[in-house]
Amino acid sequence: MNSTLTTGSVVGFAMEEDGKPFFVFSTMSAHTKDVLKDGKISLTVMAKDFQGAAEGRVVLIGDAVKVFDKEKIAAMREKYLARHKDAYWIDFGDFSFFAMTNIVSVRYIGGFAMAGSVTPEQYEAASPDPIVPFAEPVMKHMNDGMYYTSSNPLYPPSAFNHPPFQYLRTHFVTRPLPRTV
Questions:
Q1: How large is the C-alpha radius of gyration of the chain?
Q2: Which residue ranges make up each domain of the chain?
Q3: Is 37 left (phi over 0), alpha (psi -120 to 50) or beta?
Q4: pLDDT (tens digit, 9 = 90+) per residue, 116-166?
Q5: Beta bridge partner(s), residue 153
Q6: Fold (CATH) for 14-169
Q7: What region does 145 belong to: left with phi over 0, alpha with psi -120 to 50, or beta?
């Protein structure tokens, strides 16, 4: 294996209040060794119902470090278990907490021909979208055609596949984009 290449992986994560993700990695994993080597990471967060390249996703690129502070680890553990209720393995001796400490790039891909970037400063200045907890059932309701009738042709079901409605379906975690991209 080429030692200059890094290993990609599929991992769970949780978010700090500042919008930076954190992780719990096994020290036996190749991706953990890569993070320990230079700290450079990227995290692709996909829509919950992601099925392929036409679906929304966000890529955060930055730096991560191993967390040693016991109080911080305890707080992270609670947040991680709240998001990943079956992550009993986080207490195994070979698992450690890692935190993204610096975001250098944020890319949003909403599907084909719908991509853009926000600056790390724009991302960090954004606040959680209060609609996110309700978006999925509302969008399902709208996409199922509940508001489309022959007397209301302004809102055919296909209209809800267009931004900003598509963004509601493809939100990621708790950080909305500060503008439509």
A1: 19
A2: 14-169
A3: alpha
A4: 888 899 888 887 777 777 777 777 776 665 544 445 444 444 444 444 334
A5: none
A6: Pnp Oxidase; Chain A (2.30.110)
A7: left
